[in-house]
Amino acid sequence: MNNSKITLDNLSQELETDKVSFLEKEQGRLIQLVEAINRVESSEDWQKLKVILLDEIVISLEKQLVKEADKKEINAPEIYRLQGQLVWARKYGDLKKLSDWYKFQIEGIRQQLKNSIN
User: Fold this and answer.
1) What is the pLDDT of residue 18?
2) SS3 label, residue 15
3) How deeply is 90 buried, as exposed, middle or buried, from its count of CB atoms within 10 A (0-12, 13-18, 19+)?
4) In terms of pTM, does the model score above 0.85?
5) Span 90-115, pLDDT tens digits
6) What are the distances in angstroms from CA 39 to CA 2, 74, 79, 91, 100?
7) Any idea what the Cα angle at residue 46 is, between residues 44 and 51, rounded to 5°?
8) In which residue ranges of the chain is pLDDT below 50?
9) In this structure, what are the phi and psi dihedrals at residue 33, rounded to the nearest 5 degrees?
10) Would you kindly state where each structural domain of the chain is located, as residue ranges?
11) What is the 3-state composition of the chain as percent helix, strand, coil, each rounded to the nearest 5?
């Protein structure tokens, strides 16, 4: 009888159980996050904040990026910094897109769980 085979099979089974447990917890966390984002996104206060603050930040960053790109001597690190800030501002300024991105992550976890069970 080969005891090493039994040990490897048991270890593999434990790792698979740990993976499924982690994925289930992560799925639950992301579902709660999506629900919270959707509640915030539908609130009137968020709409005001978005218009007053976040939309202006996006416009300002776009202007700075164009201004930097139009210079004779381009400062690449500054352009990359502005691009990163613009991506961040757009991502978190549109909660619907953010919610959709997390829903996509949840679907990926569901697929992984489905494949683990089969």
Assistant:
1) 81
2) helix
3) middle
4) no
5) 888 889 989 999 999 999 999 998 88
6) 57, 42, 35, 17, 14
7) 100
8) none
9) -65, -45
10) 3-117
11) 90, 0, 10
